[in-house]
């Protein structure tokens, strides 16, 4: 497994930024920022726990999506994943979330993409591809979620990028690019093929 | 001009959610959320000022992008726009930001898209197309920004969706869809043509 580095934010936050609020999901940081004309103003940025997404590849070549229901949210087609808990490394999170949400374990994890999608939020998202899947127990999701498993083919997966309910913009962009560019599509098809 | 409704968030926040922090950019709200098993937990959501983006169409058919530099951020190819100030309606924001960042006024604004891109942030983004442009004075940007104007053709604009520095994911997805689908592309070309 490659060493996983945390992706950088598009907006720099200095080391000495001060935490001015600690919430249950979000913390708020502030610092004095010098502007181009030399004057100063207070800049603000949010921190939240990093999250991990897993794209599980079944041995028959299908991808294992989930249909998720969360309180106060419309049901949406998603992927297993969730937040990195205190003391966990991102690969441990990937393993735990895959197991909790699908009852599968993967023998191989490939890091497909890692980025900070929102410049004003200090928040990294890691997208793994999980291969060599093995079913281990019955689904035991987070109390705040209801999941149904929804296996789809690679070509169906590319089409799902379009739909309003698919909630992973960063993944959607990569899938649309793959649809546009045949070379990228074949590269991706290979990456998403079973072990 | 059509009446502009504020788009709904993908994640519901009750009316009586309590503001627990007020920052310079972000406010934090909390509420008790009942889970599927009947137990309760604290949910948290961020509020920030809505923002407006303008896609200005020059009379020669080119689109007026900007190359922006903001303190603590890599320079990026962007579009005029900014946050809705207290008491302003979104169309006023569009007019003000277009003028401040490009020195142009538009005689017509078409709302192309309005959405809340991040489910855990109460934050709406309105994307306008501005036509009938007229130069009115020299650029007088926000002290926190430096802008260069960068006119591009419609086809160049579609290609910019790919680049890492283009910071509008929601726009990028629509441009990629237009590249994929010739009917959508021609529809968009027409929408983006001068008055």
Keywords:
homodimer, 195 residues, alpha+beta, Nucleoside Triphosphate Pyrophosphohydrolase, 2 domains, 4-stranded mixed β-sheet, 4 helices, 22% helix
Describe the protein's architecture and organization:
In chain A, 22% of the residues lie in helices and 38% in strands. In chain A, a hairpin with a 3-residue loop joins strand 1 and strand 2. In chain A, the strands form three sheets. In chain A, strands 1-2-3-9 form a four-stranded mixed sheet, with no helix packed on it. The first copy, chain A, contains four helices and eleven strands; from the N terminus they run βββββββαββββααα. With 195 residues, chain A is of the alpha+beta class. In chain A, helix 2 crosses helix 3 and helix 3 packs across helix 4. The mean pLDDT of chain A is 89. Chain A is globular, with a radius of gyration of 19 Å. Chains A and B meet through strand 2, strand 3 and helix 3 of A and strand 2, strand 3 and helix 3 of B.
Describe the protein's topology:
The structure is a homodimer of 195-residue chains.
Chain A: E1 18-22, E2 26-34, E3 40-48, E4 51-56, E5 63-69, E6 76-78, E7 81-83, H1 90-102, E8 104-115, E9 121-122, E10 125-135, E11 146-152, H2 154-160, H3 169-180, H4 182-191
Parallel strand pairs in A: 3-9, 4-10
Antiparallel strand pairs in A: 1-2, 2-3, 4-7, 5-6, 5-11, 8-10
